[in-house]
Amino acid sequence: MRRLMYEAQRALASPVRNPRMATVIGRLLGAAFLICFGTGLYSHFLQNPLPGMHFATRPAYLYQFTQGLHIIAGIACFPLLLAKLYIVFPALFAWPPVKGFLNFLERATIALFVGASLVQITIGLLNTYQWYPWPFPFRQVHFALGWVLIGLLAIHIGVKLPLITRYWRKAADGSEPDHLAEAAHPDRSKNPEEVRLWGTTRPGGITGRLLDYIDATPQKTKRVSRRGFLTTVAVSVTAVVGLTAGQTFAPLDAANVFGPRKKGVGQQGVPVNRTSKQAKVADAAMATDWALTLVYAGTETTFSRAELQAMPQTEVRLPIACVEGWSQMATWRGVRMMDLADVVGAEAETSFRLISLEERGSFSKTQMGYEYVRDPLTLVALELNGETLDLEHGYPARMIAPGRPGVLQTKWLSRIEAISA
Predict the structure, then answer these.
(1) What pLDDT band is residue 251 in, cutting at 50, 70 and 90?
(2) Secondary structure (3-state) at 207
(3) Is 413 within the bounds of a domain?
(4) Domain count within the chain
(5) For residue 260, is it within any domain?
(6) Same domain, 239 and 371
């Protein structure tokens, strides 16, 4: 077995399979994971704020940018992770497989990191298509795996820090250390390990034939140059990002081939995530006696749609930015939330709970901090893009605020209740 493992490593040797290249790709992959983790935490706490948390409402496109970046970095992880695995693949044939307890921990954490990474980016990608072919809740598992990955990444960096430090920068003369060049271009006639393992002759039988087959593969593998490999990785990252980022960033809209949402496609020129049929709200939303109830200090004040329309109207340009990564800028018109709060005499630092006509759903009830309530761009919207709000976009009224995830821009509003401090 030791002989076979040695020959397998020889056969897989390549100019790109060395610590320097592993460090180059590794730091790009690490940066992508850190971006995903940071933007993911921001999105999570926007949706599930801890007591005392408050968030910036400017720039108005803040969440559109951070969540778009989250999805793009996650998609870029696919080619980067595959590239890193390609580089370190020969290490699987090390013999003995485990050289001690610390080596076992190192290999175990790497295996967990690779497995968790593949699961994390795969379920994240499928979430953008709202396809969930698994029995566990996506949001909770995705959030927990994020912490697991960051912990494993920290352990991996700690273990490999001496190697990372050594190969972080290229040699001043642009050359490789001798042992890297030898690993990339092994020569049996000069390799003392070969003589020690085999003596002066190769074994016969099945082992010999297997080794002859392995020997035939290095010539193909060695044709992968460092420049060609890096070019392939760069083109792959550019392709997977460029062909999906258009769902978030308007300049790339024409190249949006794989993104699940297309800008301008949907009722009133805006995509729809959750329909009125899925939410089972059509009858209640279209009822002639619909009214918005505002609750403050134990007093309920109701507003019919006609009464809301009779109040001073404000027009704003704000994006709908969804956790799946897509976003769409639109023109909204309606009553400022701060004006409604003033009508009922709410104090400046009063937060509110938004309640939808939708009776079931993770976001049928959401919380809005006072920083959004008092922002002049936050509206109870009655119109979209110059037309009466479509049922699919939240008729008879919905919330729209700057810098908030789409799931918190509550559609089919029913009640707005003050939250006790």
Answers:
(1) confident
(2) helix
(3) yes
(4) 2
(5) no
(6) no
The model's pLDDT over 182-198, given as tens digits with 9 standing for 90+, comes to 444 444 444 554 444 44
Strands 365-368 and 398-400: unpaired
Residue with tokens 């990444």: 153
The letter for the amino acid at 390 is D
Average pLDDT score, the chain: 87
pTM, 2 dp = 0.86
CA-CA distance, 63 to 39, in Å (whole number)?
9
Select from 48, 79, 24, 47 the least CA-distant residue to 241. Answer: 79
The CA distance from 374 to 47, in Å, is 19
Residues 321 and 379 in one domain: yes
Beta strands in 206-336 (DSSP E): 291-296, 299-304, 314-321, 327-336
Q: Where are the alpha helices (DSSP H) in 56-100?
A: 62-88
Burial 326-354 (b: 16+ CB within 10 A, else e): bbbebbbbbbbbbebbeebebeeebbbeb
Closest CA to 215 of 191, 190, 192, 186: 186
CB-count burial class (<10 Å; 0-12, 13-18, 19+) for 23:
buried
The domain in which residue 207 lies consists of 2-245
Hunting for tokens 């598992």 — which residue is that? 141
Per-residue pLDDT tens digits for 142-166: 999 999 999 999 999 998 899 899 9
CA neighbor of 313 nearest in space, from 333, 328, 294: 333
Among candidate residues 245, 261, 286, the one where a domain is terminated = 245
Short-list 269, 263, 268, 266, CA closest to 248:
263
List the end-to-end C-alpha distance of the chain, in Å, as a whole number.
69
pLDDT, position 216: 59
Tell me, yes or no, whether 387 and 348 share the same domain.
yes
